[in-house]
Write a structure and sequence with these properties.
2 copies of one chain form a homodimer. With 228 residues, the first copy, chain A, is of the alpha+beta class. Chain A is 24% helix and 28% strand. In chain A, a hairpin with an 8-residue loop joins strand 5 and strand 6. The longest helix of chain A has 18 residues, at 127-144. The A-B interface holds A 1-2, 4-10, 33, 46-49, 52-55, 57, 76-84, 88-90, 92, 94, 133, 136-137, 140, 219-222, 227 and B 1-2, 4-10, 33, 46-49, 52-55, 57, 76, 78-79, 81-84, 88-90, 92, 94, 133, 136-137, 140, 219-222, 227. The structure holds a DNA duplex (27 and 27 nucleotides).
DNA sequence: GTAATAGTGTCTTTCAGACACTATCCT
DNA sequence: AGGATAGTGTCTGAAAGACACTATTAC
């Protein structure tokens, strides 16, 4: 039975997003192999049935191997499929979105580049569509959930977190409303006695994610992110 | 290259939902083949690379063949994968949610049964998880979009539409707020001069979906459904 | 002191739910 | 007339944004 339908290529692709220079940026990887060898594309690869527990595991492996990133926020985005999207044949790509703070990134590998999602180069396959889909998802979830915290480091101030929301949403947000919202979401807590220092101004309270919200590996969609 | 990773089973499964007796119900299909022959499960099947354009097309084919349903509202749900979910081996199931009005259903085939999503029998594979995921998705989208209109027929009254929302959400909704919301969503229009008749009470205005919102075949996630 | 950013108190506007009323059919 | 459901006008309370104020640092 299983041998009757072997001719579908099963892959994962990952849209890894971070905040650089105030922009939401995506990691692109220069393809070594055909098709589209030499072109910038999303990091991705075949599912390894022998090694991967499931598709999320495969996506995590791709992130480790191609971006040097471990245990980021990882969420299933959607699956792109069909006869036309890959010249090698009928293919399935299970796409994931991953968020990492810039500080958690390793020194950039030579085959990899960051590009702002608003100024993307031409991408092979349907990768442009996948990135757009990812950005739309992250934007939508920023409206009602705490998703953008995963773009901040382990310790962050509320103004930094607000800047992360603003970068994702692409527009300024009201400070008072923002703090009210973060407060009711209840997903961050002040670090006792920890403040920023150095600026010629009042120091800011440092916060961290509450324990229950660290290491999120949601299967997909609306997860545990204390949505409204 | 393609021949190196052939051992992943590619399938689609469909959670077909409708409104029966005031309940949200899901179509279950009695399996003819092993594994789990004779058990009730979600309608699904292998992707046919020769015949299907993409996974959504495969899902539509499954719905035609196993439920006799044509061109319903069809939306990608999520993809379930891994070594453990199917005894035949490492598998990928691209799951879809479909909504149909009860009136658009053909006479029930003998291998198929409807079950309320709140009183499901035991299901094989991870189908229980898939159904729960689908119900959660439909509930979430009912909060801010016009999704439940696809459970109503071609012509419907606002009280009927409200009942559809209430069945999906599992709780009563405020009549005034409901009508305000439907009005701002702007996705339905009154049918000029068409009213219900027969009851011992005031007739209700009949509505229909606006042209732009018919035949939705969203790839996934938050689509064209005029979300808020 | 001033400049700069952090953090809060409060007013106003906007929106959702509650309630009550009117409208229109049938018997 | 009276019962039943459809549809609307309006009040009220909650939540979101605007604005202005206080707080704490460096110089």
């Amino acid at each position: 039975m299983a041998r009757e339908h072997p001719n579908v290529l099963c892959t994962v692709d990952v849209v890894l997003l971070t905040l650089r220079d105030g922009d939401l940026q995506v990691l692109l990887h220069r393809r070594a192999a055909e098709p589209f060898a030499g072109a910038l594309a999303l990091p991705g690869g075949y599912i390894h049935a022998q090694a991967d527990l499931d598709a999320a595991d495969a996506a995590a492996r791709v992130l480790r191997d191609k971006a040097g990133v471990r245990s980021p926020y990882l969420e299933q985005l959607a699956t792109f499929s069909g006869a036309a999207r890959d010249p090698r044949g009928w293919s399935v790509s299970i796409a994931y979105v991953a968020l990492v703070p810039e500080a958690a990134l390793p020194p950039p590998a030579e085959a990899a580049t960051w590009k702002p999602v608003e100024r993307l180069p031409a991408l092979p396959f349907d990768h442009r569509q996948i990135v757009d889909h990812a950005v739309a998802r992250v934007r939508a979830k920023a409206q009602y959930s705490s998703l953008p915290v995963h773009l901040c480091g382990e310790r962050f101030t509320l103004p930094q977190l607000q800047a992360a929301y603003e970068a994702v949403l692409g527009e300024p947000v009201n400070k008072v409303s923002f703090r009210r919202k973060i407060d009711e979401l209840g997903i961050v807590e002040p670090i006792d006695g920890a403040f920023t220092a150095g600026g010629a101004h009042r120091p800011a309270q440092l916060y961290r994610l509450r324990k229950a919200f660290r290491h999120v590996l949601s299967t997909s969609g609306r997860g545990l992110n204390s949505g409204a």
